[in-house]
Design goal:
8-stranded mixed sheet; 411 residues; 12 strands
Length: 411
Amino acid sequence: MEFRPVLNALMRNKTGLLLIVLQVAITLAIVCNSVFIILQRIEKVNRPSGMQEAGLFTVNSLGFAPDFDLEGSLRQDLVALRSIPGVINATTINSVPLSQGGWSEGLSDQSEAVPQDKRIRESSAVYMVDEHGLDTLGVKLVAGRDFNAGDVSPRTKDDKGTLHSVIITQALADKLFPGGAVGKTLYSSLPGKNGPVTVVGVVERLQAPWVGWDKVENATLVPQYSLGEFDANSSRYLIRAEPGRRDEIMKEAERKLGEINSGRIVRGLRSIEEVRGDSYRQDRAMTMVLTTVIFSLLAVTGLGIVGMVSFWVTRRIKQIGTRRALGARRFDIRRYFMIENLIVVGIGVAVGLVLTYGFNMWLMKHYELPRLAWYYAPMGALTVLLLGQLAVFGPATRATRVSPAVATRTV
């Protein structure tokens, strides 16, 4: 088939041609970037936290009685929680991973006496736990040792306690001590200004509370328990239940804590599954919205092509009938309109590729999104081209049904 008749026909419908080209170009740009964002959000939501989340839940205690003994209550609570049938372990903890609220600290491989350009400094989430912390969280120790009872000390607002050891995540260890972290000295303000502590262990992974943080894999476990440093008479517990028994043990833990001491409020009973769901709610909502936008745009673009080609077929009844009278087969008529549509959509795709990368650069600048992977644009282009061919197939098939006699009567 010669392309000159196709191009001549298109030039006689410049407005329709321009509309379809712009629609295809905008659709391609939005769809490519939306799919990229959706897949990023899905990857973010599904990334492992490092914990055994299925059996984990948290509960808070807030004492209100005048003679409330926070330290005594904390020790009694932990013994009671660990004794519940089906509980694997329990620990006190200052903040919950993935909860969007916690404490961060600046850490360094050298003291402040060393020039700044000679030091490696990283920010890290800080979790205060006792010697049962790692087992309760279910994190995997890949180097060094766990905390023991002798490592753990109380921490108050006025007394930072005695701190000599910490456990850090592999991601943090790779940044601060690329050659191996166990036994290395870490400097921070945890035990006081510029106090040195020793890294005694490294865990494979444990995420920070802030799921949108770019250093979410940086976490430090500290063998301490807080005694009113942040909230007077308040304590938080993390409990790990046997598989399949979390929900029943959550109720039992709440009941037991209430029975032990009536001079407090037991509140904040939440599973880690619920914590994760709340923290990633916006990401899931964005995924749903963008998915709806993608399908809506593709549908509108497809319907636009159907409408425009149907209009062109109606205007060319005489031309189609003449071609049929001269011996054109049904296949030739269908091929004509599909090639015509392929040219139109192809021009739109070419413009859309430019818009796709331009839109991505704008998102990078204003929303700190990463660069669009190279394969999204060609895959999007193929999708739009296929959509165009599917959309034109119906109107092109109807054009093949035009007989020479019908065309003649339209003269």
